[in-house]
Amino acid sequence: MGNYVISYDVGTTGVKTCLFNIENSIELIKAESCGYKLYILDNGGAEQDVEEWWSAMCATTKKIFNDEKVKGKIRPEDIKGISFCSQAQGLVVVDEKGKALRRAMSYMDQRAKKQLKKGMAYGPQIAGANIFKAIPYLYYTGAVSSSVKDPIWKYKWIEENEPEIFNKIYKWLDVKEYLLCRCTDEFVMVRDSAFAALLYDIRKGHEGWSKPVCDMVGVNMEHLPKIINSTDIVGPLTEKAAKDLGLAPGTPVFGGGNDSSLIGVGAGTVHLGETHIYSGTSGWVSTIVDKSMVDATAMIAAIVGAQDGLFNYFAELETSGKCLEWVKNHLALDEIDIYLEKKDVTEAPRDFEEAYKSLYDYMSAVIDKVPAGSNGVLFTPWLHGNRCPFEDPNAAGMFFNIKIETGKKDLIRSVIEGICYHKRWMLEAQEKKTKVSDTVRFVGGGALSDVTSQILADILGKNVETVYFPQNVGAVGAAAVVGVGTGIISDLEEVDKYIKVDKCFTPNRENKEIYDKGFEVFKSLYKNNKKAFKALNG
Q1: Looking at the chain, which terminus has fewer C-beta neighbours within 10 angstroms, N or C?
Q2: Is the model's pLDDT at 334 over the cut of 60?
Q3: Alpha-carbon distance 55 to 44, whole Å?
Q4: Are 284 and 317 spatial neighbours (Cβ–Cβ below 8 Å)?
C-alpha cells in the first residue's frame, strides 16, 4: 500500500488534478486537466462559474481512476487525503447551504474603482491609500487594501450594485474555500486566504479577523468564516461530494493553500531567504522572510503563507505566461496553426511538423536563434494592467522599437524577454528590503522551456534552477500539505527533501551588456507612457 493523495490545482483557466504517492519523494502517478471559462466583462469585471470548477474537478478525478495505469491498482478507498492549491483573492458569496449566490469574482476583476476610491483612495495618500487609514491598517494587517483587485472592494461593489444578493450572503469565501465547502459542507477560511482578504490581524497573540479593520472598511464580520491552518483537516468528504467526484466518502479533506503559498512549497523553497520565480498565467517573485514587511511604493508585501511564523515577500505580475498565450493565439497561429499536434511516426522526423509536439516547443526553438535583445525590440507584459512595482489598471502591453527589418521571430522573443525583464524589476525591488537568494528556483509552465530558463538567468544575472515537472509544483505543494497533515511528512520545512532539482542554468555573461541596456529602457517605458495609458484606458 502506498501513501496516495490527490491534489487539485485550481488555476485561472483550468484545474489540474494530480494523483501522487509520497515515499522518498512526492511522485506524480497521473495527472488530468480540464479547462473552464474566464468571463471578461465590459465594465472591468472578471468572473468564473463555480459549477464549471466543480464539473472540471469531477471529470478529471474520474478520468484518473479510469486510466489504465491506475485502474485496478489504486482504488478511491486508498486515498489518504485530498487538498487544494488555488488561485487567490477571488470572492465567492454563498448562502447558508453553501450555494453560490452569483458567479465568482476573479482576482482579475477591476470593476470596483468607485468603491476603492470611496473607501480608501481619497484625501492625502501614501501608495494610493488615505494616509490616515493606511497607517492603522498597516499596524493590524501588515498590508493595505489599496488595489482595485482586492476582495474587499469586490464585496463592497456587490453591496452597492447587487443589494438583493448582498442581503442573502451567509459567508464570504475564496476559491479553494468554496471547494472545501462543496466537499465537506464546512465554512472555513485558510489563514493565507484570510490574509489575502486583507482583513487578518497578524500581530502575535491577536491572530484572526481584525475588527478594527473590518469596521474601517465596512465589512460585516458575520460574513467571515472561522480560520484554519493549511495542514488542518476541514472534515470528511460528504456522501454527495464523494459520489460526484468518484472518491470514497469520509476521505479526509485538508485546508491546502493559495498558489502564492503552495507553489513555493512545491518548488522546494521552504527555508528563510530562499527565492522562487513563478511563470504561469500570472507570475511573481517570492522570497521567504521571518517578519512582516511592506514596500508601499512598489506594492510588495510579506504575505502569510502555509508555514507558521514565516512570510512570503511577494511581488506579482498579472499576466506572465498569459502573454505567451496571446502570442500563440494572435501572432503565431496565423501562419503555423497546422503544426499543433505531433504526428505518430516511427522514423526520424522529416520536418518540424513531426519534430515539435506543440506550438510552444516550436516557438522556443525558433526564438533561440534570435540574438539576445531581440534585435532591439522590447515588449511590456501588462496585458491586464499591472500591480507591482507600480499599481495601474490602465497600463497595457506594447511592442517598442520596431523597425522595417523587424521580423515575427524578434517579436516573439521580445515577449519572453519582456516577461523576464519585469521579473528582474520585481526582484530588484525586493532587494531594497531583503536579501534574495543567489540561486533562484524557477517554476510554472514557463520553466518547461530551457530557452526561457536561460533567458531568465541571463537577464537576472543569477543561477536559475528548475525542478522535474515544474508545471505541477502547485499540486505538489498541496500534496505536501496532505503529507504533513497525515504525518507522512514531519513538517513543511522538510518538504525540500522530497523535491529534486532537474536543471541549472548559468548566466551567459556575453549577454549582460545587452540586457542591462534593454532593462533600463524597459523600466522607462511605463513612466514615459503613463499619461498615454490613462488617456486611452482610464
Answers
A1: N
A2: no
A3: 26
A4: yes
Sorted by sequence, the CB contacts under 8 Å of residue 97 that are 6+ apart come out as none
Q: How many CB atoms lie within 10 A of CB 246?
A: 15
* Secondary structure E strands in 448-515: 463-467, 501-505
Strands in 331-390 per DSSP E: 378-380
Q: What is the pTM of this model?
A: 0.89
Q: Closest Cα partner for 262 from 425, 35, 511, 479?
A: 479
Beta pairing, strands 439-443 & 463-467: parallel
pLDDT at 63: 97
User: In the numeric block, which cell numbers belong to residue 42?
Assistant: 465590459
Q: What is the DSSP string of 59-81?
A: HHHHHHHTSTTTTTTS-GGGEEE
> What is the distance between the alpha carbons of residues 70 and 67, in angstroms, rounded to a whole number?
5
Nine-digit cell string for 104: 465568482
SS3 label, residue 328: helix
Residue 136 clears pLDDT 60, i.e. is over it: yes
Calpha distance 419→284 (Å, rounded): 10
Cell 493553500: give the residue: 257
CB-based burial, 35-59: b 16+ in 10 Å, e otherwise: ebebeeeeebbbbbebebbbebbbb
Q: Parallel, antiparallel, or unpaired: how do β-strands 171-173 and 188-190 relate?
A: unpaired
Name residue, grid cell 503555423. Answer: 336
Local structure of 372: helix, strand or coil: coil
* The C-alpha cell that represents 50 in the structure block: 463555480
Q: Residue 95: which residues within 8 A CB-CB, separation 6 or more?
A: 101, 168, 169, 170
Calculate the alpha carbon distances from 505 to 138, 249, 403, 453, 473 in Å. Answer: 39, 46, 32, 7, 19
pLDDT tens digits along 6-53: 999 999 889 999 999 999 999 999 999 999 999 999 999 999 999 999
How many angstroms separate the CA atoms of 268 and 248, rounded?
30
**Amino acid identity at 129:** A
Q: Is-contact 10 175, C-beta < 8 A?
A: yes
Cβ count within 10 A of residue 309: 9
At residue 202, what is the residue type?
I
CA nearest to 281, candidates 318, 248, 309, 310: 318
CA-based angle 193:194:200, to the nearest 5?
145
| DSSP structure class, residue 185 | S
d(CA 38, CA 116): 23
